[in-house]
Amino acid sequence: MVEPRPTVRRRRLAALLVQLREKSGRSPEEAAERIGCHRSKISRIENARLGISLGELRDLLMFYGVDDPAFVEDLVALARRGGERGWTRHLRAALPSYADHIDYEQTADYIRSFQPLLIAGLLQTSDYARALYRANPEMLSGKRVDDLTSMRMQRQEVLERDNPPRMCVIEGEAALRSPVGGPKVMRQQLDHLLSRAEQPNVDVQVLPFSTGAHVGLVGAFVLFGFPTPAFSDVVCVEHVTGTLHMETPEETARYTLAFDTLRTAALNTADSMDLIQSIKRET
What we know:
There is one protein chain. Helices cover 50% and strands 12% of the residues. A 6-stranded mixed sheet has the order 3-2-1-4-5-6, sandwiched between helices. The protein is an alpha/beta fold. It is built from 12 helices and 6 strands. It has 2 domains: 8-80, lambda repressor-like DNA-binding domains (434 Repressor (Amino-terminal Domain)), CATH 1.10.260.40; 94-282, Endonuclease, Chain A (2-Layer Sandwich).
């Protein structure tokens, strides 16, 4: 039986517990001794593979020197709801790979996205996203399109939260020139892209047509990195019927190399912004 992926809340709690333990100078063995368990249990808790009782959580927080009552109660609330899938729970049965993708977005601290043909999902306007969904022959219901568009906008809130993830996006020139939704929608989309690129946690580079052959010709992909070594990087590749997730070190290392190579080949940030402005004037 395949072990289910940890929920967003459990991953957040696990990452925080690792950070708090390391900040306090305590070892996993000391933490295990404190709550009277085996070292492996602490490992599973910190890997988000096992929940933690509220009593154990409070005891560990005291042991780690956490004395802010409000913060303690926030973590207790997080642990109490650790098994819930949050706002993606209704997607699990119908669209499990999409729900996993959103979970990764919500817990990552570094998102690298290569998009040769489309604007990255977290940087899309609602009109641009709606036009994409309407182009899908399976999207026959107007309500379905509206629901998915609303969900995409909700996903983007991750870039506005406290301690947002760092996001590095490489857009192919074709993504900037394809008139998705028509000229007006595309101009608004390019304006939005320029605005997002001004955020300190968002970097946008453009891979121009003049690059010629490059490693990204095989297609788009997204790399998620997480705030603790307990969670390996994850590569996501979308296809017609869902999303493929790859987590082995060999797979993620190859995609990391591909992304780094593409970033070197892409225009620098300033030249990228100039090209986006130029294309917007032409649209």
